[in-house]
Each structure stands twice: as structure tokens, then as C-alpha cells.
Amino acid sequence: MVSPNPPETSGGASASAAPRSIKDVVIRLAGNSQDGIQAIGGFLARLAGRSDQDVMTYMTIPSTISGGPSIFQVRMGTGDILSAGDRADMLVAFYQHSYDAHIGSLRPGGVLLYDADHVKPVEGDHRFTNVACPITTGTIEAVGGTAKDKGKNIYVLGLIARIFDLEVAKLTQLIRERFGGKNEDIVRNALLAFDAGYAWPQNNLRDLFYRFEAIDRATAVSGRPQVTLDGNSAIAYGFLAAGVRHGAGYPITPWSSIMETLRTELPKYGGVFVQCEDEIASISTALGFSYTGNVAITGSAGPGLSLKMEALSWATMAEMPIVVVNVQRGGPSTGMPTNVEQSDLMQAIYGSHGDTPRVVLAPKNVEDCFYLAMEAVRIARAYSTPVLLLTDQALSSRIEAFDEPDLKALMVPPGPDRTERPADFKPYPLDRQTRHAPAGTRIASGKYPVVTGLEHDEFGHPTGSPKLHAQMNAKRREKIKALAATLPAPELSGDASGEALIVTWGSNYGPAREALERIRAAGVSAGHLHIRHVHPLPPGLDEVLARYRKVVVAELNDEGVYGFGQFATLLRARYALPSIVSTCKTDGLTFKVSELVAGVARHLGNATLESLVSQARPSPLATR
Amino acid sequence: MSTAVATPPPPAGAPLTKKVLTADHPTWCPGCGDFAVLASFYRVLEKLQYPHEKIVTFAGIGCSSRFPYFVNTHGGHFIHGRALPFAAGISLGGDDLHVFVFGGDGDGFSIGGNHLTHTARKNVRITYVIMDNSVYGLTKKQTSPTSPIGFKSKTDPWGALDQPINPMRTLLNSGATFVARSHATQVNHMTEMMLRAARHDGFSVVEILSECVEFFEGAFDAAIPRKGGHWVLIDEKKNDGSPEDAARHDVSDELAAFQLAGQAWPGKFGVFYENKTRRTKNALEAELIAKTREKTKGATDLALLQATFAKLR
Ligand SMILES: Cc1ncc(C[n+]2csc(CCOP(=O)(O)OP(=O)(O)O)c2C)c(N)n1
Ligand code: SF4
Ligand SMILES: [Mg+2]
What we know:
The structure holds two protein chains of two kinds. By secondary structure, chain A is of the alpha/beta class. Helix content of chain A is 37%, strand content 21%. In chain A, strand 3 (54-60) and strand 4 form a beta hairpin. Classes of the chains: A alpha/beta, B alpha/beta. The interface between A and B is large, with 79 and 60 residues. The site of magnesium ion has 9 residues of chain B, from helix 4.
């Protein structure tokens, strides 16, 4: 097909140059939500999962219900992909507004691929390689009939597949799987659009052809296939693997998809998920499930977590196991509901009335969402305690590929333990871990226990005894300390001592690891410590933190009245080290690698490092 | 501090007697109506003879909500107003359990009002007893949602201004499938109402007027004959074809129940409404599970999750 608007890079000649080798690429697709750009990202992510490439995606959900601008960013490449990428190497702009809003995100030397039917780029802007492709007319011509421009996304998928030498057989297989259930015409149209897109570069682009570096096979070890999914799905499946068969919730972005998944999946497993009238009822119902010996989950975002706080205190007092997911978003109040933030940490740890020692875990990436969901349930059961799983909006929706979990080894059987309890059974023994006798369990003594939010003696009877209150407070505290003593040392990367230690929790893991590499490449000795067990903290950290001149805690919340983010505040209180400082931001977006490098440079007063940040790094796609 | 008394355990399967069911001595004020409710509940359990370990007595917060400490069954004392959603979790998490919830008018109609509506509309298999004293007892005499206009409380020293709710109308409106009303001075009637409620397959509620002698003395005298009041029972339809039967109350007639609920104070006592056809959430969820598992042909949990992950490759 001949392009009516020959692209600037093309001399009209057919492709000749050999594809250039690249390590990874960040592609940003910008259009409207109804164009199905999420689907392109999904296909690329799934393809990477089925190939040698690693992948990470980043998506913004438009705040309007349907229609309206929407973007999807995918980064794929060889080796570990740790973050979604600061800036794009390729921008695919479907409309003028897409171009206007996102051209600034393109790295110098990057490729602007735009729909020539809708976009007019600024004349004389030579920073990028501009490719004008008639995406709309190309799609219409290829598909024909009444479909109009439906299928543009698949046309673009074809373009990308050709430019980056992606595996066509696997992609077309994915298209068949995706549309297969629908009528045959839809599959046929999709494949026509794909083929047209795939064919276009051959005659229109001369040297914009790339190929990913071959993977170092020695590092690919697990032998298990890769799966591609988002963080919320990973949490839901982690709960299923952990033997959770009961839950309750109330909808709120970005938590809802966890409850939707569980509501849909649980009946298959003989379980129940209840949609309640509000978050208070949700946690209450979940606690009721747990009381029957079926450890249950509930969840929400920040506003809903606030509503659960009174019942969470009860769970601490009554020593009732429960897992509460909090998918953090921008706050306070309704805040920025579709943006990421980590400002619920203090609420998660301390948000309830009374002394409520409890457990807070934060997954570092999508894969970790699965494993920490399992870990949360394990801890809740073992210590008969509430556990909060603190994830965030970015993790909830982004798609990553990772090794399929070894389910055969991991699956935990569900169900209550209703074996008869001996005559000396006490619900709240002072010298032992509480293990409730679920309702339905015979007690040999014939004396049945009461679970209660009143301070109580070992049998659950209310007490006003100051001595017992102190003893029971100690019991509830000591079990959390006992858990802390068993926690593994957190992951420490880079130098074991030196100028700076970057400390992160939650989804900042990836960008911080990349930032560490850049900082060390600049000759600065630095480490990165990532903490998944946020509360209680694992043992031995004081010794680690003391080995660095500056401990830079990077988190997505406000620096507060005293100049420190929430986790930094806790670390300063816990370790009393003046070297602990903060790098915070609340722009609703995940950390860019460059922002973290800049944060460290500022705290070290290292001008060289600082200048490194301001240097624009050309895209690997640059044609020189 | 009270401790468990060292009595020899009853042999498994021994009949449940008041002695076996008695736990801590109630902390209520002498003369409190709640004592009679407790005594009736023992009688109900004696009649029902459920397996001891399958009975759950649960409550929120209030004087009346102290109930579970006084009954030797599995039980719990939750937070103010939220006992019903907790009990829904118990009922749906252990379908073989017999779940009883006790609470006050503040607990049920004020802070827990929305939970009442939603647990009722879901028709979760629970028996709920509201011990209505028309005052906040535990917190010492504030206006409650059922306090009559003019009632002098610490929050309305000049007399309550706000329109009280009509408990029967509220319960009927919520979608509860069994709604009855009784009085703590009528032990036999109370026992019968609770017994019928317990045997009802669904969300059943009995509102019991239970006097707080400390903060609202004489609140329900209008229904106590020896204090000059009128104790009038609902005349239930017997379906005996007799001419007088036509005028009797049909408990399956929701409109008639609303009419009864609108009668002037102190109104009538008995079963206002019973719907035997609406299915419980317990049954609906069980059916959903059965149908779903039919489709998956009883695949193991491992096979199910493996299949899910296989689709994500
Ligand atoms: C969240 C919360 N708010 C307020 C209270 C205080 N409080 C305890 S019981 C109660 C009202 C009790 O009235 P009712 O439910 O009618 O029970 P009664 O004591 O009259 O039996 C109140 C306001 C509480 N425990 N928790
Ligand atoms: S204050 Fe009233 S309701 Fe509470 S125990 Fe005393 S009499 Fe009963
Ligand atoms: Mg009351």
C-alpha cells in the first residue's frame, strides 16, 4: 500500500537496512478510550509474556466514564524491566489532542508515529523521527464494509509488530484467542487490519526497524511459563491460592476489580463474596466469616479504609484474623481517585483508636501482589491478627509478565478447624497464641467462648482489671513482635555501605532499582533497600541503615509538617538516625527514575549527579 | 472479674437445659426488662434442642447487647450497631449454625439502621431480637430513635422533639420476612414469638418492649393490664373457613401488616408478617455455587486456579 503522505524518513524506497538491536523500548499509545488502545497494550504484554521479552505497562484510566483521552504505555525488552519508563521512545498519536498532550513525553531521537488522517505535527520540529501513517484510512481500506475505523488499534499493533520484529505467529494467535469467542467476521477483520498494518512499513519506512537483543538464556531459569496480569488480579488469585473462600466489600476505585474477580471466581471454589451496603458492613461481614473459621478478606481504598477503622480495632482486641486490602489512591477525601499515592501508610498502621498493634504488608510489583496476598493470609491465621495489604493504584492496573506460580506447591486448603477443643480451652490464654474455636466447634468442657471487644480475661469475660488490661495489651503487642523476629531480611541491592541508601516500600521498587544503577554508574557508592513487611519492620535494619551517609526514603506522599514522608517519619522514630531524609512527591504519578536520582543528588549535595539528571538521554531508537 | 465455674461438662448429646445454658450472672439493674427476655430465650433453646455447639448468640453494644455473656453458647460482643452484618458473615460462613442477635433500639434503629435494612432485604438466615426500651440505657438516658415526643432525656431535657420511628413499619419496609412484636412482661408470648422466629427460614425479627427501670420507668405500661393498660393480641387467621376468620389477620398479607403497624399506641402484639416464599441468601448462594460447580464439573481448587493461570499465559 502506498502512503498518501510519505513519511519524512522514507525515500519511497523499500526497507533495506538490517534491523538495529535494542535492549528495550517504551511505547506510549495515546488516543481515546474507545479506540481500544488498552487492548494493544494487553496484546504486547501477553506477547512479551509468551516470548523472551520482559514487560511492564502503565495505564491511565480516563476519569470520564467512557470516551475521552486515554493512554497506555508499555515497556518491553530483554532482561528485567523494573519500571514503566520515564519517557517514551515511541509515541503513537491517534488524534491531534493526543499529539499535543504527549509529544512532551517523547525522548529526543524518539519516533513519533501519528495518524496522518487526524494529526498535524508542529512544522520544523526535528527532535524526533516523524512517521506519518494513514492509520484511519489504512484500517478502513483493509477491513472495508461497515466497520468504519474500528480495528485501528489492531492496525497499529501490526505496525509495531513489523517495526520491532515481533513474533507474528504468536500475535495472530493472541488475536484469535481474544476475538475467537465472537463471530468469525470479527476475527477476520482483526486479522485483515493486522496484516495491513504489518505490511505498511515495508514500503514506507527505510531504516526504522529494530530487534530486541537475544536473551541470556542462563538467566532464564524457572522453566515455568510466563503469565501476564495486573496487580489486582494477582491479589485476588493470591487469596484463592491461600485458601480464602470468603470475603465482603463495597465498590470503590481502584479496589473494585478485586471484589469483582472474587465475586465471580469464589462460587467455583464453593465460596461466598458478599457485596455489602458499605465498608463498615463489609469488614463486619468478613469478621463474621473469620469467626466461623473461614479467614476472610475485605478491602477498599483510603476513604473506605477509614470507615473500617473501628472494626479493625475490634479485630485487634478480639484477636480475630482478617486481611484488609487497601488500594491507595490520591487523598485526602475523594482526592485524585484514579491516581497513585502512598499516603495511607500511617492510617494503615495507626488509624484505629486504642493501641492496635497489627501487620501491614506492601507488595513491590505485580508478581509480589500474588505472593504477599498469600503471606497476608498466612500471617493472619498464624497470629490471629488483622493484616493490611497496602497496594496502590499503579500496581492495581499495570500489567506485568512473571513466572507462573507453582500452584501445586503453594495451594493452601481452605476450611475451618472444627475439631473438638479440650476442656482447658481458653480463647485468650496469656501464655499462648490465641487460636479461636470457630462457631460450630464442640468444647469438651461444655463452656463456650465469647469473642469480645471489651477488655477480657483469658476466658473472654469482661474485666475492669488494670493489671489484666496491661497484660492483654502486652500479649497483643508481643505476638506482633514475635512475628517481626521471624521476618526475612529485606532485599538490599548495590553497595553494602556508602554515600547513599535509597529506601522504598510498595510500588517504588522498580524505579528505585533503576535509579540505583544510574547513581552507581556515575561513580557514587549507593545501595537500595526495599521493605515489603512495612509493619512490623524486619529485624537488623538499624545496622544496615547506619552504613550509609544518607538514607533517602522515597515515597509518594507529602513531606508533612516536619519535612518527612510517612515512612521516613516512622524510620526516624524507630532508629533515631539523623541521616534519614525524605524524597516525596504527590503529583499522582509513579516515580520517574530521574526524579529519584535527583532526590539522592540533592541530599548528597552532589552536583555531578545532579547534572546527570538534567542531561537528556537520547532514545535508543534514534537514527543518529 | 468472673471466671468459668468448674462444673462437670455435660455428656455429648445431653439435653440443653437452662442450667447448661446459663453463663455469667447478668449485670443488668434489678427489675430491668431484659432479664425476662433472657429467661424466655433459655426456654426457647430448651424447646429447640439444637446441638449446643451450633448455637451462636451475638450482639452489638448497649445494655441489652450484653446478652451473649449471659448465655453459654458460642457468641460474641461486637461494636455498636454492626452486629447484623457480622452475623450475616456467621450465617453465610457456617450454614449449619443457628445465629441469634440481640440488641437495643439505638443499636438497631439508629447507628445500625442501614445494616438492618440491608440484612433484611438479603434475607440472611438470622433471628434478631430487638430489646426496645425507647432510651439509651448503657449511656444513661439519652433520646433514642423510639423515644416518644416529649420524653425528657439528658439530650432533650425539655422533652424529645423528633418524630420517633415506628419499629414495625420500619421492619416491614426493610424486607424482613418475619416480623413480630412482644412485651417483656409476657414471658409465654415472648417465648412463642422467639420460637416462631427461630423456626422461620430467613431473616426474622422480634421487637420486644423491654422496660428500662432506671431511665424510662413505665414506658410500656400502656400495654400492661395490671397497670391499667391493654394487652391486645393479633387475632391470626386460622383458615378454618369460619365466618369470623375473614376478619382475622393474614400474616402473609403485607398491606394488612402495615395497617396493624399504623394502629395507635400501644397497638397489638403478635406476628405482623411472615413471608414463607422468599428464598434466603443462604439458599441463593448455595444454589449459585451448585450451578457453577456443575459447569466446572467439580474440578479441584488446584485445577481451577491452574486453568485460570493457563489463560493468562
Ligand atoms: C461507635 C460508638 N458510638 C457510641 C457508643 C456509645 N454507646 C454505647 S451503647 C449506646 C446506645 C445504647 O442504646 P441501645 O442500643 O438502645 O441499648 P440499651 O443500652 O438501651 O439496651 C451508645 C450510644 C459506642 N459504644 N460506640
Ligand atoms: S440501665 Fe436500663 S436497660 Fe440498662 S440494665 Fe439498667 S434498667 Fe436495664
Ligand atoms: Mg435502648
